[in-house]
Write a structure and sequence with these properties.
- By secondary structure, the chain is mainly beta.
- It has one domain (5-113).
- The protein has one helix spanning 101-113; strands at 5-12, 16-23, 35-41, 46-50, 52-58, 61-66, 69-73, 77-82, 89-93.
- A nine-stranded antiparallel sheet has the order 4-3-2-1-9-8-7-6-5.
- A hairpin with a 2-residue loop joins strand 6 and strand 7 (69-73).
- The chain is globular and about 40 Å long.
- The two termini are 14 Å apart.
């Protein structure tokens, strides 16, 4: 049975996508059990969970820090800087209703198999 979730943010780079989802079937007061940031590698269709550290907001600019890197974004786009890279990747903000089918498939596989 497919999992029920709502995409909250979707960002596209050339090689990967970043998405934040909220699981709709999970009843928990712990945000770590309900909200997930995931990185989808387009070349091999693999999904990796980003380990959330902190978040901040300064006007329209938002920041998320993960063990794997830092994300800065606004309504039109942003940058993601992986921990192991010095150069940030440019991101385009996408409409969450336009979630690519291969990303949805990877999310389903991740949670059903995981």
């Amino acid at each position: 049975m497919p999992i029920s979730y709502k995409p909250l943010f979707l960002f596209e780079a050339d090689a990967f996508s970043l998405v934040e989802i909220k699981l709709l079937d999970v009843q928990s007061d712990d945000p770590a059990e309900v909200y997930f940031w995931l990185r989808f590698d387009k070349a091999d269709h693999t999904l990796h969970k980003l380990d959330f550290v902190s978040m901040d907001k300064d006007g329209a600019e938002q920041q998320r820090e993960f063990q794997q890197g830092k994300l800065q974004f606004n309504q039109s786009g942003g940058t993601y800087t992986p921990s192991e890279a010095s150069e940030p990747a440019e991101l385009q903000t996408k409409n969450t209703s336009d979630l690519p089918a291969e990303l949805d498939d990877a999310i389903q596989r991740y949670f059903i198999g995981g």
